[in-house]
């Protein structure tokens, strides 16, 4: 089984090489991201393995299909970069639904603590033997209200972590479940939360969920955390909210236009994205470059589950982690009947 592996990074390769050897899968690693210009690299492969910023649009899908590629194996949970509607009936799409909810939720909390306790400032100061505390005053998390948007696997771990800090938790979910969580409508969550943390997927419903109008509903001084997907936030509106001193702080592990910059070293270059550059220049903004998933445990799980997905698919033509545009619609998606979506 030959798999063209796009957007390969040094931290991906050892785990996938090991799994590949054990499972008889030949991964061919390409540094390039998958897009219309690079899709030809997949020629001769049985499948492609992609990550969050690879482009799997209609044109790419058609080319993969023409080349005889059978499967797109996402080595991540989110799949907003895949045109699932276009892929249906042509090419199967599998993903890694869970690999470490702890990795992402713990990163969200790490960013929150760093931001509100000014650790990023203190770290730089003490390295310069500046031991002044001026301007480093933070606030207690205990007793504060956090609003969690999307109480799924990651959101729920975040809720547990926040409860451990003695915080009050409100949550909004399009499909709320369980009675151990206080679910409220989004308007109420925006109005009452001191901190808002996004853990829902990027869909048409959630695109620019945080925008000029919703920012105006939020408390002055609100802290916004986004470890989910960049386009949940209108970055221009966020910047304006920060400049107006309405938003107290923002912690961003994802950014709407991240595919042009994240995962690459631009030090020594001029950054073309003015909004990102301005956000990074703010003392109350912390940006990490889609790093929340990056733990040893998560990388190991990602490689193992992706290899299992590929083996299961090529051995049986089915995969429990397949997803499609019609999943949930038993008339159109055959997964509940035949084990594969089409
Ligand atoms: P999940 O599927 O377990 O949970 C998502 C939750 O969002 C579900 O409860 C769902 O009902 C809810 N939801 C769906 N539509 C919604 C809407 N319109 N409004 C509010 N809630 C809605 O997914 P999981 O594993 O918790 O991941 C959440 C997100 O985290 C993923 O979609 C992905 O974008 C992001 N992620 C980011 C990573 C990073 O490294 N920064 C790594 C892994 C995931």
Q: Which range does the strand content fall in?
A: 5-15%
Report the CATH superfamily of the largest domain. Answer: NAD(P)-binding Rossmann-like Domain
Instruction: Specify the overall morphology.
Output: globular
Distinct small molecules bound, one entry per kind? 1,4-dihydronicotinamide adenine dinucleotide
Oligomer designation? single chain
TL;DR of this structure?
This protein is α/β, with parallel strands linked by helices and about 350 residues long. It contains twelve helices and twelve strands.
What does this structure look like?
Helix 1 packs parallel to helix 11. Helix content is about 35%, strand content about 15%. It has helices spanning about 15-25, 60-65, 85, 100-115, 120-125, 155-165, 185-190, 210-215, 235-245, 275-280, 295-315, 335-340, and strands spanning about 1-5, 25-30, 45-50, 70-75, 90-95, 145-150, 170, 195-200, 220-225, 245-250, 285, 320-325. The model has no long low-confidence stretch (mean pLDDT about 95). The longest helix has 21 residues, at about 295-315. It has about 350 residues and is an alpha/beta fold. It contains twelve helices and twelve strands. The structure holds 1,4-dihydronicotinamide adenine dinucleotide. 1,4-dihydronicotinamide adenine dinucleotide (NAI) binds near residues 153, 172, 254 and 292.
Give the secondary structure arrangement, pairings included.
Elements: E1 2-5, H1 13-23, E2 26-29, E3 47-50, H2 58-66, E4 71-74, H3 84-87, E5 92-94, H4 101-116, H5 119-127, E6 145-149, H6 153-164, E7 168-172, H7 186-192, E8 195-198, H8 212-217, E9 222-226, H9 235-243, E10 247-252, H10 274-281, E11 285-287, H11 296-316, E12 322-323, H12 335-338
Parallel strand pairs: 1-2, 1-3, 3-4, 4-5, 6-7, 6-8, 8-9, 9-10, 10-11
Antiparallel strand pairs: 5-12
Helix pairs in contact: 1-11, 4-6
1,4-dihydronicotinamide adenine dinucleotide binds at residues 77-78, 101, 104, 149-155, 172-175, 199-201, 203, 205-206, 227-229, 253-254, 290, 292-293.
């Amino acid at each position: 089984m030959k798999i063209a592996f796009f957007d390969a990074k040094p931290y991906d390769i050892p785990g996938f090489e090991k799994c590949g050897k054990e499972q008889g899968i030949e991964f061919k690693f390409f540094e390039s991201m998958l897009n219309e210009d690079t899709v030809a690299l997949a020629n001769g492969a049985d499948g492609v393995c992609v990550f969050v910023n690879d482009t799997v649009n209609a044109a790419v899908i058609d080319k993969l299909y023409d080349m005889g590629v059978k499967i797109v194996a996402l080595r991540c949970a989110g799949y907003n970069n895949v045109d699932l509607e276009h892929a249906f009936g042509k090419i199967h799409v599998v993903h890694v639904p869970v690999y470490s909810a702890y990795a992402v939720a713990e990163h969200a909390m790490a960013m929150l603590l760093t931001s509100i306790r000014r650790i990023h400032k203190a770290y730089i100061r003490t390295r310069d033997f500046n031991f002044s505390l001026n301007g480093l005053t933070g606030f207690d998390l205990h007793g504060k209200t956090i609003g969690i948007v999307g109480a799924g696997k990651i959101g729920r771990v975040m809720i547990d972590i926040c409860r451990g800090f003695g915080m009050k938790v409100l949550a909004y979910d399009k499909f709320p479940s369980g009675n151990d969580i206080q679910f409220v409508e989004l308007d109420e969550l925006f109005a009452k939360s001191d901190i808002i943390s996004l853990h829902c997927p990027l869909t048409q419903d959630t695109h620019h969920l945080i925008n000029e109008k919703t920012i105006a509903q939020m408390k002055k001084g609100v802290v916004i955390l986004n470890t989910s997907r960049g386009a949940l936030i209108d970055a221009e509106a966020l910047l304006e909210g920060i400049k107006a001193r309405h938003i107290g702080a923002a912690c961003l592990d994802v950014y709407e236009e991240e595919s042009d910059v994240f995962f690459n070293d631009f030090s020594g270059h001029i950054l073309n994205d003015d909004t990102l550059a301005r956000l990074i220049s703010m003392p109350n903004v912390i940006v990490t470059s889609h790093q929340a998933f990056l733990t040893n445990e998560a990388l190991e799980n990602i490689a193992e589950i992706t290899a299992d997905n590929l083996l299961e698919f090529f051995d049986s033509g089915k995969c429990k982690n397949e997803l499609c545009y019609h999943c949930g619609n038993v008339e159109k998606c055959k997964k509940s009947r035949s084990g594969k979506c089409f």
